[in-house]
Specification:
Elements (H helix, E strand, L loop, with lengths): L1 E8 L3 H12 L4 E5 L22 H14 L3 E4 L2 E7 L9 E6 L4 E9 L3 E4 L6 H4 L4 E2 L2 H4 L8 E4 L6 H11 L6 E4 L7 H9 L3 E3 L3 E7 L2 E7 L4 E3 L2 E4 L2 E4 L2 H5 L23 E3 L10 H37 L1
Helix pairs in contact: 1-2, 1-8
GO molecular function: thioredoxin-disulfide reductase (NADPH) activity
Keywords: Flavoprotein, Oxidoreductase
Protein name: Thioredoxin reductase
Length: about 325
């Protein structure tokens, strides 16, 4: 079994950023990653200072190279479970056993979980196929690239009308030709007035599918066959955290059922931190990287705090023996 100071579960922006800080702090670090980043369908990454327009795969490749340059270990695989190791003495450092799907195991004094989230998107035909291309979710990531074009905002269903409407008002910042597809949902008088006031079109008929021509989105087809021409459509997905490892450890969750962390990413379980989309649905790539860095600094400080009394005790014992 390989022993490390820290095992980072997830090799995205948060995990690699944390690993970089920790390896530069001369900690033994392993990063376990399954190679399935959330932003894999996106051709470019926007809004990351100094890396705007860079392909997500290039950012991750650069991050992996930086981590390994400082001695970090990259492990390809999926973590099946994390369990706390019982203490055998007062001088025993807390630890965790991280078991991978292939049965191999790593031991770590601290664990940082950065497993991200998954997007629950409407099952409308064409949505899954165009996801991350011209079926988009984040206006701050993609709005500028489709500015001044005929845009649509698709409601995921009647239950999600309010969230989708908020999204439509955001998208209006990037284009004066925006159509809100209520997808069979009903709007209040006040909601209709807001759309009219902001010159946002409204289509209430349920959506049948997205129309794709020559490999590009060209419109939204309604039930009945009418097609509303659009070059890009936004949808606000439901965010589902990949947090089973955290909840399995007993980490507390909040009223929104997401695992709660402090400003450094510390969970309610001693020795366990989390960062990025696994605990923050709003974190963009640059935010996740920052959270990973903050968690790494806190973890290193925590390790120093744990080592100090043990080192002093050993020092005193050595003086007595000598």
């Amino acid at each position: 079994m390989n022993d490390y100071d820290v095992v980072v579960v997830g090799g995205g922006a948060a995990g690699l950023s944390a690993a970089l800080v920790l390896t530069r702090a001369r900690r033994g670090v392993a990063v376990v990653d399954a190679g399935q980043p959330r932003n894999a369908p996106a051709a470019h990454m926007q809004g990351f200072l100094g890396s705007d327009g860079l392909a997500p795969t290039e950012l991750l490749a650069a991050g992996r190279a930086e981590v390994t340059r400082y001695g970090g270990q990259l492990v390809s695989g999926t973590v099946a479970s994390i369990t706390a190791c019982p203490r055998t003495s007062a001088h025993d450092r807390r630890g965790f056993e991280v078991v991978l799907a292939d049965g191999s195991a790593l031991r770590a004094r601290r664990v940082l979980v950065t497993t991200g989230l998954r997007d629950d998107i409407p099952d409308t035909p064409g949505v899954q196929e165009r996801w991350g291309r011209d079926l988009l979710h984040c206006p701050y990531c993609h709005g500028y690239e489709v500015r001044d074009q005929p845009l649509g905002v698709l409601a995921g269903g009647p239950v999600f009308i309010e969230d989708a409407l908020a999204h439509a008002h955001l998208i209006r910042q990037w284009s004066d030709d925006v159509v809100f597809f209520a997808n069979g949902g009903s709007l209040t008088v006040a909601q209709r007035e807001q759309l009219v006031a902001r010159a946002i079109g409204l289509v209430e008929t349920p959506v049948a599918r997205l129309v794709v021509e020559d490999g590009r989105l060209s419109g939204v087809e309604l039930e009945g066959g009418q097609v509303v021409p659009r070059t890009a459509v936004f949808v606000r997905p439901q965010f589902v955290p990949n947090d089973t490892l955290l909840t399995g450890l007993g980490c507390e969750t909040g009223q929104n059922h997401w695992v709660t962390v402090d400003a450094t990413g510390r969970t309610s379980v001693p020795g366990v931190w989390a960062a990025g989309n696994a605990v923050n649905p709003r974190a963009q790539v640059i935010t996740a990287a920052g959270e990973g860095s903050a968690a790494a600094i806190a973890i290193n400080n925590d390790l120093v705090d744990e080592d100090l009394p043990i080192t002093v005790a050993n020092f005193r014992l050595g003086l007595q023996v000598g």
